[in-house]
Amino acid sequence: MKTHRVLWSPVVLSLFLAMMGGMVGGIGSAFAATTTTLTVAVSGSISGPAESVSLSGNVTVTSTVDAASGTVVLALDLTGLSGKGQSTGATYLFTPQAEVVRPLVVADTVVIGVAFYPNSPGGFLSASSALATLKLSFSTATGKLTAVAAAVSTS
Fold first, then answer.
1. C-alpha–C-alpha distance, residues 49 and 70, integer Å
2. pTM greater than the 0.70 cutoff
3. Any bridge partners for residue 75, and if so which?
4. What does the longest C-alpha to C-alpha distance in the chain come to?
5. Half-sphere exposure (Cβ direction) of 105: Cα atoms closer than 13 Å
6. pLDDT digits over 80-131, tens only?
């Protein structure tokens, strides 16, 4: 008596598992690179060596979350920020951009050093340093940046 085995069942099972893996991978990849951009207004006063500087403008934060590694890449753009010398009235510029990699958590505080200098020929030669502090909130369910608060200080 001959036993007939169905040869196609391992093939069908393999195809089914491959399709399911693709669907699961598709869901994961949609979250794997979630990008969010938020802009926050900043104003205040910082102390430079020559004079105090009033600053105002916007800081833009773009976050790209990689769920597979549990990290977030933060691109910080300070090109919308400018300052004005309180005694001379000189215009001040700020270091335009920075990028940092952080673990993905619900709430995070990032502190980066930035340079500010007079907007004049050779002004960058008399640059001073300040700290930009950003308080960030994320949804770990979606990977989206949900809130940003920013401040710039010299201490």
1. 41
2. yes
3. 62, 99
4. 104
5. 9
6. 999 999 999 999 998 878 899 999 899 999 999 888 999 999 988 988 999 9
